[in-house]
Amino acid sequence: MIEVRELVKDFGGFRAVDGVSFAVPAGQIFGFLGPNGAGKTTTVKMLTTVLRPTSGTVLIDGHDAAREPLAARRCLGIVFQDPSVDNELTAAENLEVHGVLYGVPAAERRRACEELLRFVELWERRDEIVKQFSGGMIRRLELARALMHKPRILFLDEPTVGLDPQTRSHIWAFVERSARERATTVFFTTHYMDEAERVAQELAVIDHGRIVARGSPEAIKRQTKAATLEEAFIALTGHSIRDEDASPADQMRQMSKLWRGRR
What we know:
The protein is of the alpha/beta class. It has helices at residues 40-47, 69-74, 91-101, 106-119, 135-146, 165-181, 193-199, 217-224, 229-237, 248-262; strands spanning 2-11, 14-24, 29-33, 55-60, 63-64, 76-79, 153-157, 185-189, 202-207, 210-215. Helix 3 (91-101) packs parallel to helix 5. The longest helix is centred in the middle third of the chain and has 17 residues, at 165-181.
């Protein structure tokens, strides 16, 4: 369902992603882990057609993400790290707008809206303005919206960040149910090693732009002789604290190098 071959992304003289390859079969829940600055976000942006690779290939359900971005996007449902629903609309209106944008026929939109809001247990709140919702309710609504056009692949970028343990557990229960009942392939990122260990069927760990480990949580723990996935992750990526994403000034410096290199 997702196939990545020798993926490279350069920003001027800086190589953010360096020859990454992996594949995700249909129906699998796949976790993509890495410390800040490891190349994880850049890789995800290329997989979701936001960035074009410097070289290499990304196939999304057989569609080349660089050459056929629109076809690839139709296969994807995405839940971003930051909330992206419209707070001034109701839950049902948010799903309706998404369905219209993806060309879902009216009768099918009505059926899907009810089915999905029941699926995430928000049907009774369908006519309430979203700004009245809790963080966990908004996350559940975003999951429903992402599934509105029946995507074959669901991308989740740290979907449970900032949520309490009970809500995190609830969100993952919906994700696992979607993978099981709707045959959805799930690709997720997270910094919560406990939920990655519990939910993922397969994992890839990226550091310094390269895949440093790949396999089931149990296989990665055996590889590093670790008792937990968190211990394995630290063994693979080190103990040093990484900076967050580049600052605006750093981004400007990178872009300056890039443009100077084109002259």
